[in-house]
Design brief:
This protein is of the alpha+beta class and 726 residues long. The chain is 33% helix and 17% strand. It has a 5-stranded antiparallel β-sheet with strand order 4-3-13-12-11, sandwiched between helices. A 5-stranded mixed β-sheet has the order 17-23-22-19-20, with no helix packed on it. The radius of gyration is 36 Å and the shape is elongated.
């Protein structure tokens, strides 16, 4: 009877063993071709800042790719201490230390619970490569993977990977990040005691954190020092000294929040090559910019500001020096949406480019523009354009209109240059997101109803600062993205726009004297605020840098009255304070570039006052009293009806006498001046009136109507439009 049972047991044992072997093999995972992450994955090449210092995106990533140390650069004592603390027989075993496992089992049985682990360094590397739940089965499988690991890679390769990737507290990985975090220095500058502290901390990084309590290090350090003494690695005197935890700790927060910048840099990096990527980012400026942005967001949180972006560009090569993203809604382990590359409505920040085109077409900074009532069609109704202050200033010059960011003159300037030309210019300047037909945006494009990113807007202002020459922003210091610039605007028009934006007197009507927009040194500055206070912008440039900032709420809610001059202006001003302080080697006189072609002439403005104005050659008036006229109708293209427009629907107000209600007919391209050619207005196919200019008050009349206009001399006629009055 015993023999059949024995055979059955043998068969069962064989089956169990076979199942164990099959399960063990099946549970193992493929090992990487290379141990170092950046060798295994091309997009993990270390990223350096402009001066060659390591630049880490953040410490929430799986691998340490930026702060590695080749094994030969790791201090010999630190290598020895790490092996003594974690895997005493590392250089002798083949992946599993059977003696250590047996000892750990005996101690656990005697104590009735697990006393210590017996994982080798190779097994810990496997655990880093292939994370698993902490179970007995996981330990079993990891041992076999560790043996395969040692069969594929050398002991030195395994140890180097371990020293670079071992987890410490505060989400730091590797001995280099740990040395900087806990002691504020590089590993090579640490004392033996500090190195031994680094060696014992991985066992319990939180409990043994020397920044919290150095006394907890005493026991583990004493045990490892005794072990090293037993192995004749140190003498008794050294062992006694090493048992004392290091007292002088000087931790440094070396994190550089640049995750979004690095992600974009990796997207642009060349497909071939090895070694570190040297970026254009300034490590110190990036950290300082993030601190300023985060503080400003906290200050404005109560008025609905949730996110922000900050971008600093060096005009010498259009190199990005700081790329900051702020997000009050992101958790500790989140970086949030990249606000530098998120399309938002720029508000008035596009007005300088409207006026730049007008200057290219013959206007000057002294050209008068009417700042009065103006409405545009939205659907089948009318939308009145108003200035931020709700004040109309009558006739103003281009300098005053742009300096004070007036809305009605900007729309009139757009109607002069045309939406198609403006969009073509903006796309040349890099605003690729404005891809719709001009009719989609209408006249509202002058006031920022399209969407652009902070990076695109800063790049466009960099073209103004560089006297009209546009080139893409670069993220590399060594010219990997070097591209030729293109002349998007003339030097003359770009210089005049820059002069207006840097003139505090030009913005007195709406912004007053002084304030955040009046910088200590000559600086061109422009703000923008989208409708309902959903976006606030500020962009400024001096002779060396462009700084742009955006603030808002990406979820779509409006802020509580936050404008570009209230929210981001202080941030931009603070950033220029840092730049001016950090650039002491540059000339102290920081004048903006001016085209040598420009001529200075004294002119008399609409208010009767005289001022010195800059003109492109051939555009200056003959005398200070001469009026600098607007462009004639023929130069502006064929006149066209602005009002009424096709499909306009209106209703007579029953509360107002009918004879007091009228619709203003308006033409674009015809100056509203008595000496202009007479305009014939045609309503319902009959001549209704003649006026000297492009405006006429038509008495409202219920019904379906048609309207057009033509020149009395027959030179032009507008298309007929249909509208109705209820």
């Amino acid at each position: 009877m015993l023999r059949p049972r024995r055979r059955l047991l043998l068969r069962l044992s064989a089956a169990v063993l076979l199942l164990l072997i099959v399960a063990t093999v099946a549970s193992q995972r493929a090992l990487p071709e290379h141990l170092q992450p950046e060798l295994a994955t091309a997009d993990l090449r270390p990223v350096l800042d402009r001066s060659g210092e390591p630049l880490s995106a953040h410490y929430q990533q799986r691998w340490n790719t930026a702060d590695r140390l080749p094994l030969e650069q790791v201090p010999a004592f630190l290598r020895t201490a790490m092996v003594a603390a974690e895997d005493r027989r590392f250089w002798q075993h083949g992946g599993i230390d059977w003696r250590a496992r047996a000892s750990a089992i005996r101690q656990g049985i005697a104590a009735g619970h697990a006393v210590r682990g017996a994982s080798t360094i190779s097994e810990q590397v496997v655990r880093l490569l292939h994370p698993r739940p902490r179970t007995v089965w996981s330990r079993w499988v990891e041992g076999f993977e560790a043996m395969r690991l040692e069969a594929r890679f050398s002991k030195s390769d395994i140890l180097e990977f371990y020293l670079d990737q071992i987890p410490y507290g505060a989400q730091r990985r590797g001995i280099r990040q740990a040395a900087r975090h806990y002691f504020g220095r590089e590993p090579a500058t640490l004392s033996n005691g500090e190195m031994l502290a680094l060696a014992v901390m991985p066992r319990a990084p939180s409990r043994l954190d020397p920044l919290r309590d150095t006394s907890r290090l005493k026991g583990p350090m004493s045990r490892v020092a005794a072990r090293m003494l037993d192995d004749s690695l140190i003498d008794a005197e050294q062992a006694a000294q090493l048992a004392i935890p290091p007292a002088a700790l000087s931790a440094e927060d070396d994190s550089v929040p640049a995750a979004h910048f690095i992600a974009e840099l990796r997207r642009r990096q060349p497909p071939t090559g090895d070694g570190p990527l040297r970026s254009s980012l300034d490590r110190a400026l990036q950290r300082q910019g993030q601190q300023l942005l985060d503080q400003r967001l906290r200050d404005l949180a109560k008025v609905g500001v949730r996110q922000g972006g900050l971008l600093v560009v060096d005009l010498d090569g259009n190199k990005v020096r700081a790329w900051n993203v702020g997000n009050l809604d992101a958790g500790d382990s989140e970086t949030g949406i990249d606000t530098v590359q998120t399309p938002r409505q720029p508000g008035s920040a596009l007005k300088p480019f409207v006026y730049a085109l007008a200057l290219e077409s013959g206007w000057t900074a002294a050209t008068p523009i009417a700042d009065d009532g103006l409405a545009a069609h939205v659907g089948d109704g009318l939308h009145p354009y108003r200035n931020y202050s709700r004040i109309s200033y009558g006739t103003v010059t281009v300098r005053e209109a742009l300096g004070n960011s007036l809305n009605v003159p900007a729309v009139r300037a757009l109607q002069f240059v045309g939406g198609e030309r403006l969009l073509a210019l903006l796309r040349t300047l890099g605003m690729r997101g404005l891809s719709q037909h001009p009719d989609v945006y209408g006249d509202g494009i002058a006031l920022g109803n399209g969407e652009v990113t902070l990076a695109e807007l800063v790049g466009a202002y960099a073209a103004l600062a560089n006297q009209g020459r546009a080139r893409p922003l670069t993220l590399f210091e060594d010219g990997l993205e070097a591209q030729a610039s293109v002349a998007a605007l003339s030097r003359d028009s770009a210089s005049i726009i820059t002069d207006i934006l840097s003139d505090p007197r030009a913005r007195l009507l709406e912004f007053g004297d002084g304030g955040l927009l009046r910088f200590p040194v000559q600086t061109a500055v422009k703000t923008g605020t989208s409708s309902d206070y959903r976006d606030a912008w500020c962009v400024a440039y001096d002779g060396h840098h462009v700084v742009g900032a955006w603030m808002g709420a990406l979820a779509g809610q409006a802020m509580d009255g936050v404008t570009g001059s209230i929210g981001p202006a202080l941030l931009v001003r603070s950033m220029f304070g840092l730049l001016n302080r950090n650039q002491q080697s540059r000339p102290q006189t920081r004048l903006l570039a001016r085209s040598p072609n420009l001529e200075a002439h004294t002119v008399r403005g609409p208010d009767g006052g005289e001022r010195l104005e800059w003109f492109a050659p051939g555009t200056a008036p003959d005398s200070p009293d001469a009026v600098v006229a607007s462009i004639s109708a023929s130069e502006a293209g064929p006149p066209r009806l602005l009002q009424p427009f096709e499909g306009l629907a209106m209703a007579i107000d029953p509360r107002v006498p009918p004879e007091l209600q009228a619709l203003e007919f308006e033409l674009a391209g015809v100056p509203d001046k008595p000496e202009a050619n007479a305009v014939i207005w045609i309503v319902d196919e009959a001549e209704a009136a003649r006026t000297p200019g492009g405006r006429w008050q038509w008495p409202l009349s219920r019904g379906e109507h048609t309207a057009s206009a033509k020149a009395a001399d027959g030179r032009w006629q507008t298309p007929t439009v249909s509208f109705r009055v209820k």
